[in-house]
Amino acid sequence: MKKVTIAKGDGIGPEIMEAVLKIIKSSKVPIEFEEIEIGEKVYLSGNTSGISDASWQTIRNNKVLLKAPITTPQGGGYKSLNVTMRKALGLYANIRPCVSLHPFVATNFPNLDIVIVRENEEDLYAGIEHQQTDEVVQCLKLISRPGCEKIIRYAFEYAQNYGRKKVTCFSKDNIMKQTDGLFHQVFREIAMEYPNIESNHMIIDIGTAYLADHPEKFDVIVTSNLYGDIISDVAAQIAGSVGLAGSVNIGNECSMFEAIHGSAPDIAGQNSANPSGLLQAAIAMLLHLGFAKEATMIQNAWLKTLEDGIHTADIYNEELSKQLVGTSEFGEAVIANFGKIPSVLKPAASPKNSIITLPEYKRKEASQKELLGVDLFVHWNGTDANILAEKLNPLVDNELSLVMISNRGVKVWPNGFSETFCTDHWRCRFQSEKPIEKNRIIQLLGKAIDSGIDVIKTENLYQFNGKKAYSMGQGQ
Ligand code: NAD
Predict the structure, then answer these.
(1) Ligand 1 atom having least distance to the Cα of 81
(2) How far apart are CA 245 and CA 99, in angstroms?
(3) Rounded mean pLDDT of 235-258?
């Protein structure tokens, strides 16, 4: 008997969870459920994280969580429990399959069958934000080699395990050469280890446009956290409805299974929500737990129910549907179809392995890291970069020279354009021809403070194995 934690959530959560649990229990799969309370009630009781310590312990003990959507109260400093859970439990991979159910569910893309593999722990979702000047706030985009290796390898392993043919990487490395550049570089390296799987890379903007127009050209897509969040909603919506897609969050120890949609307060308590998204997540959970027989039976019964035209309001269509049903009736119809196989839609297939296990991350040999200078970020209310350069003159010596001032990334000194709009946030780059000692930075900082310069932060300029590892100013 396996034990699974369940959270019924808010809004439509309890209704869809009830329907899904009834289906799972009717399949006689040997699972025991332990319920926890998370979400709105917990938030409003004064716990800004939305979850109690005891509930965390239950999740960590049972390792597998089936979670209905929750409502995050607006304002008041409530942290998103979904993001916290993914990160605290090390759920590094977020897998979102989207498939067309044509001709039974209306879609413009009858051949759509995509799996989005989204990085789940880092990128801009690290949530490291600071206000630095009156006019400028900053969000730190962190991309790590282990983060890239894990998610990209997972995407290729997933493709292999589920018999998929191609993995496409989306990034924006033409602009973000360090962060997205690393993601793309690691993709190139890992793709070479899987010669039987086709691989390609697309810049995220044109890739998303192409995805929205020709989704049938894609198979598995791997991308970083923010891009993955956006494109998986696009893919689910064009497949038919956000109410149909499930999401799997995988870590080394724990895993969490949920629908991709939210708590839909507009239709809560009406027995009209589609339980399919949570059911898809539950079926993935059964596969993860090794119950392939039950997972396949439920998936086929679900496909047959959709083929029979038994539809909830979100996908009901006068031409395609036969019967409009509520949440619980839809669940009953799935149970009544146990043992049946769809005749038009592709029947469920089990993966080769129930769990994808990645090799342990091996840290590469450390590079030779040398300090070449520093970017001083300065809060200054002036508008003419030549005046700021003069103010910085006393800081310069025969080792460290001022080579550039930029504003929001664009070079404004030397030889800036009068057309460039400047805020009160200036990056002043001091660089040396040869590697320098770290205490040179402290001396420079001390001199800047003594000269009344409002330094808000510094960023060291390094070269790794002789290769400069920082971006140039735009126009530098
Ligand atoms: P939503 O996904 O709840 O609803 C968007 C629209 O889709 C609504 O019109 C809703 O009625 C419809 N819809 C969603 N799921 C459906 C289903 N199963 N069947 C039929 N129709 C469905 O998004 P929202 O309105 O932006 O968010 C509502 C709340 O959900 C917010 O508090 C948000 O923070 C939360 N949320 C939670 C999660 C989660 O727990 N994983 C995810 C997203 C949003």
Answers:
(1) 40
(2) 8
(3) 90
Mean pLDDT is lowest, of 124-133, 186-195, 369-378, 445-454, for 124-133
Amino acid at 375: D
Please determine, for residue 398, whether its predicted confidence score (pLDDT) is greater than 90: no
> Could you tell me the distance, in angstroms and rounded to a whole number, from the CA of residue 382 to the centre of ligand 1?
46
Any alpha helices (H) in 172-317, and if so which ranges?
Answer: 179-191, 204-213, 225-239, 276-288, 292-307
* 261 within ligand 1 shell (Cβ under 6 A): yes
Please, how many CA atoms are within 13 Å of residue 270, restricted to the half-sphere of its CB? 13
| Tens of pLDDT, residues 39-71 | 999 998 888 889 999 999 999 999 999 999 999
- Spell out the domains of the chain, with CATH numbers in brackets: 1-90+264-353 (3.40.718.10), 108-239 (3.40.718.10), 369-468 (3.30.70.1570)
Return the residue whose CA atom lies nearest to atom 39 of ligand 1: 69
Torsion of Cα atoms, 363 then 364 then 368 then 369, to 10° = -40
Ligand 1 pocket member 273 (CB < 6 A) = yes
Q: Is the pTM here over 0.90, yes or no?
A: yes
State how far the Cα of 47 lies from the Cα of 36, in Å rounded to an integer: 15
Give φ, ψ of 190 to 5 degrees.
-75, -35
* Model confidence pLDDT, tens digit, residues 350-394: 888 888 989 999 999 999 999 999 999 999 999 999 999 999 999
Q: Which residue has the tokens 């070479």?
A: 192
Per the document, the length of the chain is 476
Helix axes 327-336, 13-26, angle to 10 degrees: 10
Is ligand 1 within 6 A of the CB of residue 266? yes
DSSP state of 395: G
| Contact by Cβ (8 Å): 244, 101 | yes
Residue 255 has which token pair? 């895993």
pLDDT digits (tens, 9 = 90+) for 88-136: 899 999 999 999 999 998 889 999 999 999 999 999 988 889 999 999 9
First to last CA, the chain: 64
254 lines ligand 1 (CB under 6 A): no
